[in-house]
Amino acid sequence: METLVVLFEKISKFQPYTLGLLRIVSSLIFMAHGTQKILGFPASDKAPAMFSLSWTAGMLELFGGFLLLIGLFSRPVAFVLSGLMAFAYWLAHAPRSVYPVLNGGDAAILYCFIFLYLVFAGPGRWSVDALLKRERA
């Protein structure tokens, strides 16, 4: 048991890096939804009408995802994207079924809570926000 405690104390120094990795990987996958809606890549059946709800969501996914990817304005962007995913879940998924595994809302819930976590935890080590913070100090 003591060895586990020592091990966990040693690996905790990697927390800012794994937080940054969570932000980067989540935002890359999230951006793919925006590129599909807005840029048609990967190929999609139909493009949403400009200024429609789906188009607006795609723009937020694409540009918000990019800002989160590079870690610029991370906390406010994560807050907006968390809200977007909560809204998407209740609007598009929940009416189909109460169960996320049946309504296809698993990803929306995960994104919502990952982004909400980033609001409070910050962007991690590898981010423009962290770089700007170091320059100000």
TrEMBL record:
The chain crosses the membrane at residues 21-43, 49-70, 77-95, 107-128. Keywords: Cell membrane, Membrane, Transmembrane, Transmembrane helix. It is a multi-pass membrane protein. The keyword S-adenosyl-L-methionine does not apply. One of its GO terms (cellular component) is plasma membrane. It holds the Pfam family DoxX. Its main location: membrane. The keyword Membrane applies. It is found in: Cell membrane. It comes from the Bacteria. Signal peptide: none annotated. Coiled coil: none annotated. Belongs to the DoxX family. This is DoxX family protein.
